[in-house]
């Protein structure tokens, strides 16, 4: 069912500093910062030859990554995102298998403009998994 | 400097259960379990079209992932591994930039039979970074 690893998301307190680490120290291609007020984060993408790293910085009140950064003040790997061909079919199969889909179970439009869902970390090896329709 | 994302490593207590989640629930291609006594872990690889997920289970006394699992009893994302063309040149550049290389700074032969180094999470957005010579 799952296809490509679309991205690995890393939550950070200071996205300018994290961007500099990836650009200057690790020598990667780093995008500009984009505010995503609908998602409560600002994003920067690190373009690798086969996938991308998504840096996330909290934006506004009640950011979905605020609690994670309280627990991980230096930042840390927040989630992995796998691509699926049909997100509703994937959701129905996962629910039939007893896996928990976060929220109301309806795909939302994610930071890349495509339908996404998040799966419960307890059902997936302690890792938050995002599914994105390819 | 960094190239492809070689893998994302997920530490788990029960690699058979985690393998079943990826094989049966997420429908991915999952390898057999391999004991890596030199590294204190057993590994299973999830083959995705563009990269791989490495499941890690503690093996023997003093496994390098034991403390991580004490802090993260459900498991969790342990590290990311980026490929570099020349690991010693990469190390020297990183050290010149003030980044900390773990251990004695000499590349070791990793679980894939290639030279690897680990970088200090405090210098890399709170994430443990492995570099592997491509």
From TrEMBL, chains A, B:
The keyword Isomerase applies. Gene3D superfamilies: 2,3-Dihydroxybiphenyl 1,2-Dioxygenase, domain 1. PROSITE patterns: VOC. Keywords: Cobalt, Isomerase, Metal-binding. Residues 4-134 form the VOC domain. It comes from the Bacteria. Pfam families: Glyoxalase_4 (PF13669). It catalyses: (R)-methylmalonyl-CoA = (S)-methylmalonyl-CoA. GO terms for biological process: L-methylmalonyl-CoA metabolic process. Its EC number is 5.1.99.1. Belongs to the methylmalonyl-CoA epimerase family. This is methylmalonyl-CoA epimerase.
């Amino acid at each position: 069912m799952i296809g490509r690893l679309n991205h690995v998301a890393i939550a950070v307190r200071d996205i300018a500093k994290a961007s500099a680490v990836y650009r200057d120290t690790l020598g990667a291609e780093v995008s500009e910062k984009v505010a995503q007020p609908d998602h409560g984060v600002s994003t920067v993408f690190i373009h690798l030859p086969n996938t991308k790293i998504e840096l996330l910085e909290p934006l506004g009140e009640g950011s979905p990554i605020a609690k994670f950064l309280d627990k991980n003040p230096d930042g840390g790997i927040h989630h992995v995102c796998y691509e699926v061909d049909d997100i509703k079919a994937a959701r129905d199969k996962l629910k039939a298998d007893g896996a928990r889909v976060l929220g109301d179970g309806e795909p939302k439009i994610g930071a890349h403009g495509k339908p996404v869902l998040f799966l419960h970390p307890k059902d997936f090896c302690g890792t938050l998994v995002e599914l994105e329709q390819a």
